[in-house]
Amino acid sequence: MALTEVYWDHHMPLPKLAPIQAKVTVALVALLCFINSYDGEFVFDDSEAIVNNKDLRPTAPLNNIWSNDFWGSNLSSNSSHKSYRPLTVLTFRLNYLVAGGLHPVGFHVLNIVLHAVISALMIDVFAILIGGLAYDEKGRILNHAPKTSLLAAVFFAAHPVHTESGVNAAFDVLLICNVNVYELSQRLLLRKNPLDVSEIFRMGLLTRLALMGLGGLLMLYARWRIMGTGPPAFTEVDNPASFAESVFLRIVNYNYYYSLNAWLLLCPWWLCFDWSMGCVPLIKSATDWRMVWLLLLWCILIGLISQALCSQDSQRRRTLTLGLVLLVVPFLPACNIFFRVGFVIAERVLYLSSAGYCLLLAYSLGHCFCRWSKHRRLLCVMVLALLCVYVVRCALRSHQWRSEQSLFSSALSVCPLNAKVHYNVGKNLADKGNTSAAVSYYREAVRLHPTYVHAMNNLGNILKEKNELIEAEQLLSKAVSIQPDFAAAWMNLGIVQNSLQKFEKAEKSYWNAIRFRRKYPDCYYNLGRLYADQNRHIDALNAWRNATVLKPDHSLAWNNMVILLDNTGNLGQAELIGREALRLLPNDHTIMFSLANVLGKLQKYKESEGFFLHALRINPNAASCHGNLAVLYHRWGKLELAKKHYELSLKLDPEAPGTRDNYNMLRRKLDQLKHSAP
Asked: Any idea which GO molecular function terms this record carries (predicted)?
C-alpha cells in the first residue's frame, strides 16, 4: 500500500483544500453545469419511460418493477428491449409519490443532486485509485493525491457527456492485495522468476476473485431468467453495423464506433440525442479514410496498456491501470462483443467511463506540470480554459434538454443525415399544431430512410387532415406493405379509404389493424363510424360497444352510441347507455349534452335541464348546448329562459344552424302573447 504522497501531486496548480471544502467545490461545479435544466419538460424517451410508464403509478403492483423492463413492458415479451433497471424505476415511482404526480421539476432536481453527490464522492474514489488505500492512526482513509483527485473530480462533474456497472476485481488486485503488475508480467512473459502461487493463495486473492466471478455469473443467470431467456430483438436501423455483410466489416465498424465514443470523451462538443438511422454511415471498405481513427485509437490504447503493465513506476502503473479499467470495463456491455445492442452511440453509457477518462486526464496534466515546470503558467491557462469550455458546454447542453423543440433542433446540425432527427422535429412541430412545417421534416425523414414507416404514417395523417387523400392513401399503403403488422397504419389507411368512400377496402384495413393489435379501442371506434356511414346500425353499435369494453373511458364511442340510438328513435335504450356512460365519466359534458337531448324528447324536462346546466358549468361557451337548452325551455313553456339561451347561443355562434329560425319563431310568439295580453 502507498504510504507517501503521489510525487506529481504537489506540482498541480490547485489549492490543497480540506476534504469537506473539496467536496463542496466539486458539488457546486456540478450544480453550476446542470442547474439551468431543473425546470425543463419531459423530453424524448421520458414520454415512454416516465409519462406513459404504468409502473410509476401507485395503483400498479410494486412487484411489476422487478419483472418489467425500463419502459414498463414485461421482460418476457418479444417487444421488450430488455432494459432492466428496477432501481431506477423505483426512484421514478418514489418521485411520483413525493411530488403527487408527474411533475418534471422533481425528477430533474433529483438527477442534478445525485450527479452533484456522485461527483463529490468521486474525490475519495480517485484518491484511492491514484494514491492507494492507506489509513491514519484513527482509521481514516488518507488522501495521498488531494490535488489530482480534486482536478479529476472537477473534470467528472463538468464533463458534458454523462450507466451503471463496477470494477471490483481490478480494485481487489491492485489495491487490496497490492499485486505488482509489472513484476507479475515480467515473471509470466519473460519467465525471469518462478511465480509463487502459494503467496497469492495466502493473500486470499484467488478466493475473492472466484467469489466475485461466481457472484457475477449468478447475476447474469438471474438476469437471463428475468429476461425470459431470450435476447432483445433489434432492427438494422437501431444498429446498422451488427447487420453488416461480413464479420470483417462488423468488426471494423464496431471499432469505428469505439473511436467515436472516445472522441466524445475527448471533445464532447458534437452531442446528439440519437445516433441511429444514417447518422454514422457504415465503413464499407478498407480504403475508407475513417480507418485512420481506428488505428489511432488502438495505438493510444496499446501505448497506455504497455505503460500500465511495464512501467517501473508503481504509482504510474496503478493510476494508468485503474484509469483504463474504469474507462473500458463499464463500456463493455455496450460494445457489441457479448450481444447486439440497440444503438450506435449512446452518450448515457459513458457516464462511468468518463470517470476513467477524467482520472487519466488528471494524471496526464499532473505529469505535464511535473515535467514542464517552466511552462507552468501556460499549462494553468490551458487547464482553466478546458474547464471553462466543459462548464459552458454543459450549461448549453443542459439548456438544450429543457424542451423537445430545442433538443431535437440541436441535433439537426450534428446528424443531418439521421432520419429519426427529422422525424422527431416534425413530430414536435405537429404536436404544437404547426403541421405545414412538420410536413417538410417528415418528407425529409422518408427521403433519407425510404422504409421509415412511422414517418410515412405521421405524414399520411397530416395529409389526411389537409384532405390530400390520394397521397395519404399511397403513403399509408406503402407503410403497411413494408411492415404488414403496423396496426396504426392499417387503421389510418382505413380512415382515408372511408373518406374516399372505398368502404370495402376501409373495412378490410380496420380488421387488419385489429388482427395485429387485438385490444385496439380506437380502431373499433372508427370501424363503428364506417358502419354508421353505411347505415349498418347494429354493426356500428357493436363496434362502439367493443371500444368501450376495451377502454371504458372512450368518450367518443359512448357519445356516438347515444346519438345513433337517439337518431334512430330508440330513446329508452339511448337513455340507458347515456346513464351508463356518465357513471364511468361523470364530468363528460358531451355525453351530458347528448343525454339531455334524449331526456328532453322523452319530456323529462327537469332532468334534461339539469344535465344541460351541468354541461354548461363545465363548458360555458358551447353554443350548441345553449341552443338546445333554449329549445328545451321553448317546449317546456319557459319562454324568457328560452329567449336568454337563444341569444347566448347566437352570440357565441351567429351561424348556428336552426338557432336563428327558432329564435325568430320564439320572438313572434312572445310578440303575439304581448299583444293578446289585456
From this structure: dolichyl-phosphate-mannose-protein mannosyltransferase activity
Contacts of 582 (CB under 8 A, 6+ apart): 588, 591, 592, 595
Q: pLDDT of 328-383, one tens digit each?
A: 888 887 888 877 777 788 888 888 888 889 889 988 888 888 788 778 888 888 88
pTM: 0.78
As a whole number of angstroms, the distance between CA 102 and CA 544 comes to: 31
Question: Which residues make beta-bridge pairs with 68?
Answer: 74
The answer to whether 518 and 488 have CB atoms below 8 angstroms apart is no
- The pLDDT assigned to 174 comes to 46
Q: Which of 240, 151, 176 is nearest to 2 (CA)?
A: 176
* 595 close to 562: Cβ distance less than 8 angstroms: yes
Q: Label residues 574-601 b or e (16+ Cβ within 10 Å = b).
A: bbebbebbbeebeebbbbbbbbbbbbbb
- Residue 265's contacts (CB-CB under 8 Å, 6 or more residues apart) are 159, 161, 350, 353, 354, 357
Residue 238 scores a pLDDT above 60:
yes
State the pLDDT at residue 370.
79
Predicted confidence at residue 40, as pLDDT, reads 77
Q: Around Cβ 522, how many Cβ atoms within 10 Å?
A: 18
Instruction: Please give the DSSP secondary-structure letter assigned to residue 519.
Output: S
Number of other residues whose CB lies within 10 A of the CB of residue 650:
18
C-alpha cell belonging to residue 664: 325568430
179-184-188 Cα angle (round to 5)? 155
For 624-658, how does the pLDDT look when each residue is reduced to its tens digit (9 = 90+)? Answer: 999 999 999 988 888 889 889 988 999 999 887 78
* Distance from the first to the final alpha carbon of the chain: 116
- Locate 584 and state its grid cell: 364511468
Neighbours of 222 (CB within 10 A): 11
What is the per-residue pLDDT for 127? 85
Going by C-alpha positions, the residue among 478, 495, 547, 401 that lies closest to residue 37 is 401
Query: Residue 39: in which H helix or E strand, if any?
Result: none
**Contact yes or no for 168/31 (Cβ under 8 A):** no
| Amino acid at the residue 325 | V
d(CA 262, CA 256): 10
Where does residue 59 rank: exposed (0-12), middle (13-18), buried (19+ CB within 10 A)? exposed
Helix (H/G/I), strand (E/B), else coil: 104: helix
Residue 135 has phi, psi (to 5 degrees) of -125, 150
